[in-house]
Structure of RING-type domain-containing protein:
Amino acid sequence: MPQRHSKNNNDLAFFTYDEKKKLGYGTQRERLGKDSIKPFDACCLCLKHFIDPLCCPKGHVFCKECIYECLLSQKKDIHRKLSAHETQQKQDKEEEREKLMLQKARELDAFDQQNHGALPQYSDRSHTRDKNGFHGANSVKVTSFEEEALRNMKAFWLPSATPEAPVKVEAPSTSTICPEGKEKLKLKMLFLIHLTEAEANEKKPNSNDNFICPSCKVTLTNTISLVAISTCGHVFCKKCSDRFLAVDKVCLVCNKGCKEKNLVCLEKGGTGFSGHDDKLQATDFKHLGSGSGLGLVRPAVKT
């Protein structure tokens, strides 16, 4: 009895489902691991271990130098857009003024033609022609409006006379935004945070998990929800925050008073594919055209 070869049949005019899967055709799914998630002690801009960390009211942490450069570049960009908007407004006013002048000139020419319309066409005996080819001084002349229209005539079939759509520069927003949360952010809204380091005998060799909660002494990782106090900047775990800070209204390290609005939950690390605690699976769809040769390369399998 012949062996079944339906999955390995290659004499058809199309790919079977099994052949497409072997060639990497369709949607590829892969679960993201620890290496794909940003650590909690990394800057949201440079993705490196933060230096002099500053936190926004929404819980995004940045290096002091990184966020300063970001806000400064936004200020420069806003200033450039404002200058372009002012220049365009001046150009619009000049164009409107020119249109009014042309309208007045057209009305004067129409009035002049109406008043001299009853006179004979040839007013001189020599029948001389003017530069425009008309007889007599009282003949109809080309108005300034018509000359302007002829000069600015647009033709879609001529590259030199193809009309161009005017580019309108909208008035930009004058407020800087957070590069991570996309909400309004000012420099005075940032506050410095302080992470408690573990003691020398408790530090793990060749590891970056060297920060602990000052209350329960638990090592801080991405799996723990963190809360920072905006008044003093000390960082605690979520459990200690709910148990002590929300009840006593005072920091456990510096004894500085804090209210519930001063407790800011720090955002956990994520990637462009997914968010932490939401969806840790990256998907990518590949459409392999016929004859492209891309289907011959199988996707790398992560071990």
User: Anything to note?
Assistant: Residues 119-140, 290-303 have pLDDT under 50 and may be disordered. The chain is about 25% helix and 10% strand. Residues 92 and 98 are 10 Å apart (CA to CA).
